[in-house]
TrEMBL record:
This is 6-phospho-beta-glucosidase. Pfam families: Glyco_hydro_1. The active site is at E367 (nucleophile). It comes from the Bacteria. PANTHER family: 6-PHOSPHO-BETA-GLUCOSIDASE ASCB-RELATED, GLYCOSYL HYDROLASE.
């Protein structure tokens, strides 16, 4: 396309955060402990989440910044442990009040709230009772959903069920986010199955109780290329796509297990126990749209004989493979960011096409962004031209995807403000707004607009990429 289609009117230009990574106030006003709060081990030089960006105590200031930025949407997550501190017991009115305050603030500025129900932060009390290994957690999640719909259903038009369920399954052990230590031996695909049933019940419940609201899953979807046109490499990429991407979206959209992924689970002895009625519940639930997080594509090659440590590349997002199925390999055509993650804007367009061609549902990007070591200058500026380049290149590919015919609802880059990364501390920054703290020094937590803030503000105001 020489002349890409314009962004549709009402396109949801947004930005994204998650509760535990941004809020702090980890035990404030009756909040319970999540598995993230209970975590004691952090990689060297990184921080815990007790204070994070202290959004809990800066909420009005942060919403005012979002309004100044011109955001049309703000994607955030509620912490289950603020609402129901032990996961399945008494409600916490003060925790509920915090999210009313946030949502009311957004609405007062015309910003559409996009609410993630669950972003890695399972209540520790539930983890101690078996976490997602137990079917009781399905009921606890549905009850949590019921409370959320009762409280926020009339105010929140877009709902996301579970953030990156696929990353929880594939990397949750390493990141300490799948469950507590007590049930590490339970088949992760059993936990995955319980999450799929919980998600289906939550989708159905929203449609029944708040018919005006829309809901969808929010996995991390990344198209997998084959390293070459050698059929064995193409087959490996197909397997990787099935196990990483389609397993989750086929289940959410059609309520069934992807055949290739199921064959893989059978071969590995990892099939979950499916109770009578589960598949019917899953098939009866229908998302209204699909949200997805995108950072970069993967590249797969055929496995090597006797290959049991199929790792190549620098970080979790590429160092991944499955003996006998595929090897994840580095893509020599792509640059890498400071943390070894590949950067692939055209892969973003490919990912849009691949999802839309399979499911024909509107797509909402709930994360995409660049982690970097930003520098706060003495005059309070942050010159993150590398982030502007990243965002521009990816947004240009959204425009191409729209020109391809993909129905895109909006784009919420990660992250609205700096926050604590999943495993690399706050030194790894993603925000449009700088938060003045380090991993070992809380400083004054003041907010500073980065250069990317002004750039994104201009883009939103014009509903087009600035010249
Ligand atoms: C996604 C998560 O995996 O990527 C976020 O949904 C996370 O919670 C983001 O912060 C960036 O990853 P990281 O590891 O750099 O924090």
């Amino acid at each position: 396309h020489t002349q890409p289609a314009p962004f549709p009117e009402g396109f949801l230009w947004g930005a994204s955060t998650s509760g535990y990574q941004v809020e702090g106030g980890w035990d404030a006003d009756g909040k319970g402990r999540s598995i993230v709060d209970a975590r004691t081990q952090f990689p060297a030089g990184t921080t815990d989440y007790t204070v994070a960006s202290d959004h809990y105590h800066h909420v009005d200031e942060d919403v005012a910044l979002f309004a100044e930025l011109g955001l049309k949407a703000y994607r955030f997550s509620v912490q289950w442990t603020r609402i129901v501190p032990d996961g399945d017991g008494a409600e916490n009115p003060d925790g509920i009040a915090f999210y009313h305050r946030l949502i009311d603030g957004l609405l007062a500025h015309g910003i559409t709230p996009v609410l993630t129900m669950y972003h890695f932060d399972l209540p520790q009390a539930l983890a101690e009772k078996g976490g997602w290994g137990s079917r009781a957690t399905i009921d606890a999640f549905v009850r949590f959903a019921e409370i959320l719909y009762r409280e926020f259903g009339a105010k929140v038009p877009y709902w996301l069920t579970i953030n990156e369920q696929n990353m929880m399954v594939l990397f949750g052990g390493t990141l300490g986010i799948i469950d507590g230590p007590d049930n590490a031996d339970v088949n992760v695909y059993q936990k995955n199955h319980h999450m799929l049933v919980a998600q289906a019940r939550a989708m159905e419940l929203l449609h029944r109780t708040v018919p005006t609201a829309k809901i969808g899953p929010a996995p991390n979807i990344a198209y997998v290329y084959a390293e070459s046109c050698r059929p064995e490499d193409v087959l490996a990429a197909d397997d990787f796509n099935a196990v990483r991407n389609w397993l989750y979206l086929d289940a959410a959209v059609h309520g069934r297990y992807n055949a290739t992924a199921w064959a893989y689970l059978e071969a590995k002895g990892l099939t979950p126990t499916i109770e009578p009625g589960d598949l019917e519940v899953m098939a009866a639930a229908h998302p209204d749209f699909l949200a997805f997080n995108y950072y970069a594509t993967h590249t797969a090659a055929a496995p090597l004989e006797g290959d049991d440590v199929p790792i190549e590349g620098g970080d979790q997002h590429i160092s991944f493979g499955e003996p006998g199925y595929y090897r994840a390999v580095a893509n020599p055509h792509l640059p890498k960011n400071a943390f070894g993650w590949e950067i692939d804007p055209i892969g973003f367009r490919m990912t849009f096409r691949a999802i839309y061609d399979r499911y024909h549902l509107p797509l909402l990007v709930t994360e995409n962004g660049l982690g970097a070591f930003d520098v706060l200058e003495a005059d309070g500026t942050v010159h993150d031209d590398y982030r502007i380049d990243y965002l521009r290149d990816h947004i240009a590919q959204i425009q191409q995807a729209i020109s391809d015919g993909v129905d895109v609802l909006g784009y919420c880059p990660w992250s609205a403000i700096d926050l604590v990364s999943t495993h690399q501390g706050i030194a790894k920054r993603y925000g449009l707004v700088y938060v003045n703290r380090d991993d070992d020094d809380l400083k004054d937590l003041a907010r500073y607009r980065k250069d990317s803030f002004a750039w994104y503000q201009k883009l939103i105001a014009g509903n087009a990429l600035p010249d």
